[in-house]
Design goal:
Helix content: 40-55%
Structural class: mainly alpha
Largest sheet: 2 strands, antiparallel
Shape: flat
Strand content: 5-15%
Number of helices: 5
Length: 135
């Protein structure tokens, strides 16, 4: 039997697809229904207003959006924070600035790796270490 501790409340539960215990799953579904109900009544609400009105953390609301459970296509003011810098975005996990910086850093690292492979390696350091142990 696969059992684990619930990451939200710490209770022991039988593992399932959602990786939460049944009470936490019910609470999560209740939070989702509350968000959907509020958004149906207030289409122009942003994520902060939704969080304040429903008392559901922005982190959970963002999770609902990323999972595709809450659609922001018909909610023009609904945005969620970038995972890196916190700037409000409407799609993906990162804003354009963070994505560009990541691509630039990856390209730089790839160039440095290529340059390091082109230069021949010497084993002088290994011989010095061995010589130190002999003395």
């Amino acid at each position: 039997m696969n059992v684990d501790n619930c990451p939200r409340c710490g209770r022991l539960y039988v593992k399932n697809v959602m990786e939460l215990c049944q009470p936490c799953l019910k609470e999560l579904e209740h939070q989702y229904e509350t968000c959907v109900k509020y958004l149906r009544e207030n289409r122009g609400a942003n994520i902060q207003e939704l969080s304040d009105a429903t008392e559901i953390p922005i982190k959970e609301i963002t999770r609902f959006i990323r999972e595709g459970r809450i659609s922001i296509a018909n909610a023009p003011n609904m945005m969620y924070p970038c995972e890196v810098c916190g700037t409000l975005i409407r799609e993906g996990h990162m804003c354009d600035n963070c994505r560009g910086r990541l691509v630039k850093d990856l390209n730089t690292a790839a160039k440095q790796s290529e340059e390091a492979q082109k230069t021949p390696k010497t084993n002088d350091a290994a011989y010095r270490a061995v010589d130190k142990f002999r003395n």
